[in-house]
Amino acid sequence: MKRLLCIVSIMDAGGAETFLMKLYRNIDREKYQMDFAVSSNQEGIYNKEIESLGGRVFFIGTKLDGAFKNAINLYKLIKREKYDYVLKTSHLSVAAIDLLVAKLAGVKVRVYRSSNSNATSSTTIEKISQKVFSFLPRVFANVKIAPSTEAAEYVFGKDCVRKGKAEILKNGLDLNTYCFNEIGREKIREEFSISDKFVVGHIGRFNKQKNHIFLIKIFKEIKKINTNAVLLLVGEGELKEEIKEKVKKEGIKNSVIFAGKRKDIPQLLSAMDVFVFPSFFEGMPNTVIEAQSTGLSCLISDSVTKEAKICKNVEYISLEQSPQEWAEKALSTNNNDRGKGKEKLKEAGYDISKVSNRFIELVFNKNGKEHV
Q1: Residue 327 to residues 168, 276, 281: CA-CA distances in angstroms?
Q2: Which phi and psi angles does 43 have, rounded to 5°?
Q3: Residue 54 falls in which region: left (phi positive, over 0), alpha (psi -120 to 50) or beta
Q4: Same CATH fold, 182-347 and 2-172+351-370?
Q5: Do 39 and 62 touch, CB atoms closer than 8 A?
Q6: Cα–Cα distance between 78 and 106 in angstroms, integer?
Q7: Cα(254)–Cα(19) distance, integer angstroms
Q8: According to the CATH classification, is domain 2-172+351-370 in 3.40.605.10?
Q9: What are the angstrom distances between the C-alpha of 320 and each of 163, 280, 303, 316?
Q10: Domain boundaries, the chain
Q11: Least confidently predicted of 3-17, 312-326, 335-349
């Protein structure tokens, strides 16, 4: 059996981590296994499932304990467990130091998956760091993958896909699970007492990238037009309390639901009437792909990669346009084809079984041959 060590912060319901779990559930686990090295001592939402599937979660110390100590712990783990395959997922160049550690520990196959097309922080220091350490993922990863062309170019450089230096691995999903479900829709709407409401939905971490402040402004305008509307927010994050205060200040507290972390994403998407996603940037948003699979109309910022549009019910709109214009667009969408999303995603190559097979080829085989 071959084991892949995935280096992440915490196995929580983030986009990159969720994608790894989708892959993990669909690989042949008698031949291949996935373990996870985490730098958070909190239990992730996926930890128990990982263990039930035969994987292991190793805590290698927080970054606050010191980057050097973290690197030493990673090195010791790799040597002790004799890993030949290691994967790092991030969008920061400096994060590829973990692959340098893996190389020093003798790892043969070092995978870097770019998870975004920009940096969450726009500070000068981070921009400089991204440029200074840009060589790290290019030099120390011998398998380079990304969910979109923009995400690949951000980490691996321009023309990396065209020149065959990186491969686009689509954010696949289980299309039998991520499809419109009337029973699931009713269940969620009953849970939150919104059976007769127009539900505006959003799934994403409460951080700067997701642009929740603007989302609240949009919803306030939606509420002016349709007093029966509610906003369903799914996720956690460092800005959650700030967003709660914003909701209270805007006087729409009774119309906004903070659902927290959830595992029943297909049912939540089925319960929504429109998905509004005003992110500043995205590598390839899992939630937008998942929403389309359930046939849900999506209104997303034009800062998001154009590769995210698979179905015709996805509309891009500029962040320069007013919250009122966003609101009018959101209310003009329709969900007449909710049962057809699954087939559209399958035609576009998003079936997780095919994506998982390609992942196995890329990680455990090279040019059709075993890595040596």
Answers
A1: 33, 9, 20
A2: -75, 125
A3: left
A4: yes
A5: yes
A6: 9
A7: 33
A8: no
A9: 34, 11, 11, 12
A10: 2-172+351-370, 182-347
A11: 335-349
Distance set, CA 109 to CA 20, 103, 371 (Å): 17, 9, 7
Distance CA 153, CA 340 (A): 32
pLDDT at 57 over 70: yes
Q: Above 80 in pLDDT, residue 107?
A: yes
Q: 10 Å Cβ neighbour count for 42?
A: 11
Cα 61-35-144 angle, rounded to 5 deg: 95
Which fold is adopted by the domain 182-347?
Rossmann fold (3.40.50)
- Which is nearest to 172 in space by CA: 306, 363, 24? 24
Whole-prediction pTM: 0.85
> At 149, is the secondary structure helix, strand, or coil?
helix
- Reported as a single tens digit per residue, the pLDDT across 24-51 is 999 999 999 999 999 998 999 999 999 9
Residue 21 C-beta-side C-alpha neighbours within 13 Å: 22
Enumerate long-range contacts of 338-341, CB under 8 Å, 24 or more apart: 338/180, 338/294, 338/295, 338/296, 339/179, 339/180, 339/295, 340/295, 340/311, 341/179, 341/180, 341/292, 341/293, 341/294, 341/295, 341/296, 341/311
Q: What are the DSSP E strand ranges found in 91-170?
A: 109-114, 143-146, 167-168
The two beta strands, 298-301 and 314-317, are parallel
